[in-house]
Please model this.
Amino acid sequence: MSGSAEETKKHIDIYMKVAGALAVLTVVTVLASYIDVAVPLAIIIALIIATAKGSLVVSYFMHLVDEKSRTLAIALALTVFFWLVLMLVPIMTTSDTYGVHKPLPNANAAHAEDEAH
Amino acid sequence: MENVTTAEHVSQAAHDGHAHDEHELSFLRAYVFSVDHKVIGIQYAITAMFFLLFGFSLMMVMRWQLAYPGAPIPFIGNFLGQANAPGGIMLPEFYNQLGAMHGTIMVFMGVVPLAVGGFGNYVLPLQIGAPDMAFPRLNMASYWAFFLGGVVMFASFFVPGGAANSGWTSYAPLSVIALEGQTWWLVGMIFLITSSLLGSINFIVTTFQLRAPGLSFTRLPFFVWAQLVTSFLLLLAFPPLEVAGILQLMDRVAETSFFMPSGLVTTEGPLDISGGGSPLLWQHLFWFLAHPEVYVLILPAMGIVAEILANNTRKPLWGYRVLVASVIFLGFMSFIVWAHHMFLTGMGTTMSAFFQTTTMIISVPSVVILSAFFITLYGGSIRYNVPMLFALAFLPMFGIGGLTGLPLGLSAPDLHLHDTYYVIGHFHYVVAPGTIFALFAGLYYWYPKATGRVMNEALGKIHFWGSLISINVVFMPMFITGLVGVNRRLYDGGMQYAHAQEVMEWNAVMSYGAWALGFFQIFFIINFFWSIRNGKKVDDNPWRATTLEWQAPSPPPHGNFTAPPEAHRGPYEYSVPGAPNDYSMQGQATRA
Amino acid sequence: MDIPYTVAERPDTGLNNVKLGIWLFLASEVMLFGGLFSTYVILRVGGVDWPLGAEYLNIPIGAFNTAVLIGSSVTMVMCFASLKLGDFAKYKTYMGVTILLALTFLVVKFFEYYEKVTHDHLPSHSTFLAIYWTMTGLHGLHIVGGVIVNGYFWGPGSKLWHEKREMFENRIEAAGLYWHFVDLVWIFLFPVLYLL
Model:
């Protein structure tokens, strides 16, 4: 990102707006957590807000909107893809056992079961 | 007195920002804490070769126990320590240590540092016409992190209870309740991973940014492509293992239960842990790295073989674009096949089918690459020098390793073959007579660039033929014992199992093979050190090769090239019709 | 021969060495924290029972620290903008504030940890606390690393501004990218650990 002083001043303007948006979203996410909704919905709300904040940081503070480099775009796209693989695939391999709680034949397991109920 | 003058030079050099002349640097700065990619490459190569020898020696000791279970080990038995081998007879615990450390050392401290750290550091900047790596100091840090990791691993043999003994895969929960050696293993791994990360960033930046003018991506030598893809694998696959290492360290040190399920009972009764962890999580994080790691092992080897095949058939590499596409696809796919190591974990059938499919798909580019190499041979005027012999041997050996892997990638046959000697045979064919032969080829091939002399041809041929025959004696019988169902981790080689009885005699045969293999490496070691001073002197381009590194003086000075290089054509222009020579160098404006 | 493109952009990649290097480093960091978040998901989904973050953690303190870190990100980006405007004095101020905010974060984090230790809420207590300690601890180490780097560029490293202006700008940009990334991780850590 190289530009004239005027351009930089414009950027500073944007930074301030982004900072404001981040502050508002932080307050919103905290308040949202006090609303009594089902856990899955709460997770979705919190992650949407976090993603919005994250995108703002990456796009403006890290200047990704101004980057024109194809090399960088490919490298980051690859990273995001493999990150998704890492996040999703391991959990999918255990999908057969969701919600199935098998009691184990020893003392600790009985203890765990008590806690679950 | 000399110390004083050199110290002055150092301060002066540091003051100038960097030194232009090599003789301005002290011995310490020039050969130990050097930032020159060539010195670092050689440091990597020598250290890695030492570890390869050490890791192989562990195996030669284990092979005695497998060949003659319970017999005292000759010669060295009494030096192994009473805790490990009382009266020279190896204890099972010690056998497990040797097994775990053999795998760890060979993969993380031998092959990868030699293939990526050694060859990558030395050859890659030369091949792209760069003066050095993009971040020389980071490069040095990478080597020393590797060195420290190696020291930690090495030292772990001397802690109470000995080195890690939970296999190179360190499967939880066994590894979590293992003795102190495992903690050292984890700390060592964190150093090695850090080293690889620093190195991979450096390789990628160097390849993208420091290519000489005219050296577009379609003109890059295949070796550079292979290194580039390898670096991406290291960059993106290693961090999850670092996480796994940190979590296991937490499990061991802070008594967390990341990998510890509820209700775990050992011989000492129920464990006092909070539980709720997942042992399978370790396997996911481990294999998320370790499967791409397989390609980290093989891709640089393919790169080396490609260079040598083109050079010694005096033909362009067949299907350059197809090769590049295959290697990129291979790298990409290697991230989504890892759970084929985990078919026996009770993974759901849907995901099992998914990973079987991706595994079958990933075999396609490997076959494409191997086929392209074979077609390159067709109609060539082949020179059978030592590097070429090793490169030629790579092709069928890697082929055997690759094809025997297919049954393991399908869950039905894998149920029978999993954890048998068949698996050992399979991946050793890929890595030992495959990758390590390619690395030997590379050592013989680039030795004249680093020293200005060639290695002795006769000793090299003894080394090659001896190694080729004995290495097959070691690994071919493993397919036989594996198909019978002999488990890979048995301390006595399967003596106590009825189904193993008919193949027990192979154990001794394999051991003789391993010791013979060790014997033939002596020829290489002698050759390697003897040739530094006494090898035949050669000019800058003894193999009459085309790529840019052969344009630099041998050995290349600090900054590599006498004049800034520029690429005028593709990397493999051999036997161009109408050209005056049978090779047209990349860096020469007119064909000469 | 000097190493090319240490400061200038290489025309065909549109990047200089430092910028590509730091982005690649951040890519590996994405995979590092990705592995941790993946661990969190697997353990939580597979767990028999999982506490609400608020049972162990103090949301207002977490929210305060979030604000502190976002604030430091803003001052960090202002450091770079000040250099672009050629205002070295302003740069010094903003960098100083960035470091102070980072230290504030660490002090608050220290008291949070201290409170956990006194209540015997150690990592070995439960899987939730184990992942809380590991993730925030690793993030905290990243903050410490950032403080060291920023401290260097605030103090002795800032001499470079007077010698090689562009190179210094370059380094502050790289340090900034790292710092924003650390902030970014916290933006996800806060809701995941405290709110859910």
Notes: Confidence is low (pLDDT under 50) at residues 1-22 of chain B. The radius of gyration of chain B is 24 Å. The CA atoms of residues 137 and 144 of chain B lie 11 Å apart.
